[in-house]
Amino acid sequence: MPDTPPARRGPYAKTAERRLEIIRTATAVFASYGYRGGSLRQIAAQLGLPLTTLMHHFPTKSALLEAVLDQEDAADPDAEGRARHDGFMPMVLGIVERNLGRRELVRMFSVVSAEATAPDHEAHEWLLRRYAAVTVDYGRMIAFDQAEGRIRSRRDPVQLAGLVVSAWEGVQIRWLADGTDPVAAMRTLLAALLDPAD
Amino acid sequence: MPDTPPARRGPYAKTAERRLEIIRTATAVFASYGYRGGSLRQIAAQLGLPLTTLMHHFPTKSALLEAVLDQEDAADPDAEGRARHDGFMPMVLGIVERNLGRRELVRMFSVVSAEATAPDHEAHEWLLRRYAAVTVDYGRMIAFDQAEGRIRSRRDPVQLAGLVVSAWEGVQIRWLADGTDPVAAMRTLLAALLDPAD
User: Fold this and answer.
1) B34 in the Ramachandran plot: left (φ > 0), alpha (ψ -120 to 50) or beta?
2) Domain that holds residue A134
3) How many beta-carbon pairs below 8 A join chains A and B?
4) With a cut of 0.90, is the ipTM above it?
5) CB-based burial label for A80 (10 Å; 0-12, 13-18, 19+)
6) Which residues 116-155 in chain A show a CB within 8 A of chain B?
7) Per the count of CB atoms within 10 A, which of A97, A148, A188, B127 is most buried?
8) Do B170 and A171 touch (CB under 8 A)?
9) B110 and B28 in one domain?
10) Which residues in chain B are closer than 8 Å to A166, comparing Cβ atoms?
11) How many domains does chain B divide into?
């Protein structure tokens, strides 16, 4: 019965929708102005909401930042499964390709990450945790592929993981700036670093 | 006669010094807050100068941005000479090493570059020109080393140059964030990409 509203509509669902809407707009504002340059006032204005309504959902700018940064990891819980099944390199290239359709999200991460390199930045701890976690996860996936013979480089897998993550960051910034194909760039970089079997 | 003031002190020298001081402070402010998040007012306050004095030297924020961005290239006119003499890879590693002592300058470039990927950003054209120029210059240096037998990769030199520039950007951000050695990272990346003869 397509006319029946879905059962989950109600005050809670409305709150969830409003939160998502705020997160989406905050992503765009932080992408343009950075976290430090963006303001709750600006985000509320862009949504046509009173500031007090926005602050009912996110009482501080840093609470909103946390929600904005969280959307990424929640979106991809099965990277490791894909890496085991298809290989580390195809898994990474799949994310690079998916990111082609998420330009403002990628820009937000690039801008906030660059800002957050400063030790006194509100997202500095988040950035360090993210680098550490991704490096450990990717290191494990690369070690798996080395054992399987899919990756022939004998370098330390954690070191390789760190280089992949760093190079990727730069490749995405270049893509955002002038459209240089990030899939082709990552394919060449990964092949040079990992020496894949095919 | 060490007590004699240098001949070039005078109103012009004072203006030049004041300009340099403003550029240095603007670099630090843009590194922390981004170009969009930083303001002339903030820069003047940090220098203990009236805003009108700052605006006498730089009438607009974008005039100041231009001066801030220009300081880099002016500082290294002979990269190509060093590349011809020592090789492309040692030349790049030399700059990476020199940048260890210029943390705030590197952070400013990282933050402003990420922001400036947006087509409506005041530094967008600068960023595109910079990528294009560096890629062409590095491509020429790589081609020279390929011809000399110092670089064994037979890939298109301009494509290699683009990958080096992108990977470097990410390596520097990682260094700024958590101190990961950028010289070691770039040495491994360059060796994997270029296949140097030694």
Assistant:
1) left
2) 76-198
3) 147
4) no
5) middle
6) 116-118, 124, 127-128, 131-132, 155
7) B127
8) yes
9) no
10) 167, 170-171, 173-174, 180, 185
11) 2
